[in-house]
Amino acid sequence: MFDVASSKAGAQVVLATSADEEYPPENIIDGSQDTFWVTTGLYPQEFVITFQALMNINTVRIQSFNVRKITVGRSVSNEPTEFELLREKDVESTDGQLQEEEIHCGGNLTAQHLKFTIQSGYDHFATIHQVHVDGNAVHS
Amino acid sequence: MPTILRAKCIVVGDSTVGKSALTQVFHSDGTHYPKNYTLTAGVELLVKAVNIPDSNDCVELYIYDSAGKEIFYEIVQKHWDHPSVVMLVYDVTSETSFDSCAKWLERVRSQKPEMQFPGVLVANKIDLDQRRVISPKAGKDFAQSNGLEYFEVSAKEMQQVEAPFYFLANEFHKMYKERLEQFKTLA
């Protein structure tokens, strides 16, 4: 198991609905908690992570701030389309520290892409500091 | 590359105070004043980008021009979830419209009580000086006691129409910058 969502593992953020070039979506998968991607107003906000290959997913860990409700979807097609909803999470608000959410997928779940949708927030702006996905490549 | 912020701006107040006139004059850069009255049914959405001075950033205002007639309220409030900023409008020649401001403000705030959002109080139709019944002081006092910024405008004379919108866009941008400072301290 390793972080298949990290840019070092060849993953990419292929879509993000907010763009402040000082806080780019690449910060979500750069392996550092110090950098983040920020939403720039209104909800929902979305980003899609595309893996190097089809992966078995064990756990998804999200570090965020001001996120109230987030949904995660997966796609197994080559193109980032045809997503199906995996999980919907209500996240508790935190004061002065990051929110941490873990989604357990059991290891039998495959995905080529994961789509994260921030449905609502505790404030006008929310961040994603890091997404970590424990998994490994599907060997066919 | 400029950063584009997006803000939902809800425009509220009694019917015929000039909400649609204000938003349309602003949206058209002063080229369009609706001379004939049209009753707004439900909500009309207009989008306009405002550049923020001394930055590369811009705020896209999604302006929700809401019907003021009570009969539409049930529909209108469905569009009010997650407001970013609010514009409360009254007509300086109508005491009723001024008295309603508290009601409208309460309605907007009940949407998201835990979230703060910038707001302005707009006194419209100042061109009708002879018929004016609400003094600038009354307007300013109400604005101050409710945490709103006060503006006097005339949509008809295209006087000061941009000012309240620019103020809201700038406040939203300021809020964004403040939050970023907070976010940087989290890791």
From TrEMBL, chain A:
Q: Which residues does the UniProt record annotate as the domain F5/8 type C?
A: 16-128
The answer, when asked if Metal-binding is one of the entry's keywords, is yes
Q: Name one GO biological process term.
A: intraciliary transport
One GO cellular component this record assigns the protein to is: cilium
Where in the cell is the protein located?
A: Cell projection, Cilium
Question: Keywords of this protein's UniProt record, alphabetized?
Answer: Calcium, Cell projection, Cilium, Metal-binding
Q: Name one Pfam family in it.
A: F5_F8_type_C
A GO MF annotation of the entry reads: metal ion binding
Concerning SUPFAM superfamilies, the annotation shows: Galactose-binding domain-like
Which InterPro entries does UniProt cross-reference here?
Answer: FA58C, Galactose-bd-like_sf, IFT25
Q: Which family does it belong to?
A: Belongs to the IFT25 family.
Subunit note: Component of the IFT complex B, at least composed of IFT20, IFT22, IFT25, IFT27, IFT46, IFT52, TRAF3IP1/IFT54, IFT57, IFT74, IFT80, IFT81, and IFT88. Interacts with IFT27. Interacts with IFT88.
**What function does the entry list?**
Component of the IFT complex B required for sonic hedgehog/SHH signaling. May mediate transport of SHH components: required for the export of SMO and PTCH1 receptors out of the cilium and the accumulation of GLI2 at the ciliary tip in response to activation of the SHH pathway, suggesting it is involved in the dynamic transport of SHH signaling molecules within the cilium. Not required for ciliary assembly. Its role in intraflagellar transport is mainly seen in tissues rich in ciliated cells such as kidney and testis. Essential for male fertility, spermiogenesis and sperm flagella formation.
Matching PANTHER family, A to Z?
Answer: INTRAFLAGELLAR TRANSPORT PROTEIN 25 HOMOLOG (PTHR33906)
Under which name does UniProt file this protein?
A: Intraflagellar transport protein 25 homolog
What gene name is listed for this protein? LOC106174924
From TrEMBL, chain B:
GO cellular-component term (any): motile cilium
Q: Extract the coiled-coil ranges from the record.
A: none
Keywords, sorted A to Z: Cell projection, Cilium, Flagellum, GTP-binding, Nucleotide-binding
Q: Which Pfam families match?
A: Ras (PF00071)
Tell me which InterPro entries the record gives: P-loop_NTPase (IPR027417), Small_GTP-bd (IPR005225), Small_GTPase (IPR001806)
Q: What compartments host this protein? A: Cell projection, Cilium, Flagellum
Named from the GO MF annotations, one term is: GTP binding
Please name the PROSITE patterns in this protein's record. RAB, RAS
Q: Which PANTHER family match?
A: PTHR47978
Describe the family membership recorded for this protein in Swiss-Prot or TrEMBL: Belongs to the small GTPase superfamily. Rab family.
Record protein name field: Intraflagellar transport protein 27 homolog
Q: Which species is listed as the source?
A: Lingula anatina (Brachiopod)
The gene it comes from is LOC106154539
